Hints:
This protein has one helix and two strands, in the order E-E-H. It is largely without helices or strands. The chain folds into two domains: 33 residues, no CATH class; 101 residues, E3 ubiquitin-protein ligase SopA (Pectate Lyase C-like). It has a two-stranded antiparallel ribbon with strand order 1-2. A hairpin with a 5-residue loop joins strand 1 and strand 2. The longest helix is centred in the first third of the chain and has 10 residues.
Amino acid sequence: MMSVIEIKSTEGKVLFAFESEDNTIKKTLEEAVDQGVNLSNADLECADLSNAYLSDANLRDANLNYADLRGAVLRGADLEGALLSNADLSNADLEGADLEGALLRDAKLRYANLRGAYLEGALLRGADLRYTYLRGASF
């Protein structure tokens, strides 16, 4: 069944819309990233984005609180100022991602790859960092 899913900003502005057979927010977001859409301030709270391929995505200041990002590929993604409280980033690949000033309170980062990630000013209070790969990460 064909359906249209819109990605909106936290202010309600449509940033991207995509129509596809058996559409999901994950499919729509991956298409937006493939097209190089600026997704700054995207409202993706509680989104199921597990195993999504989002390398080099511009998700600056996006709301990803409570999002399921298990196994997601976010290499080189711009997540500066993103809200990731209570997000599940277990096994996610965040190599080289910019997480400057990101809010990662109570986020699950078990087994995540943060090699070379930029975390200056990121709030990690309560984050689960067990087995997280942090070589070359900048705090």
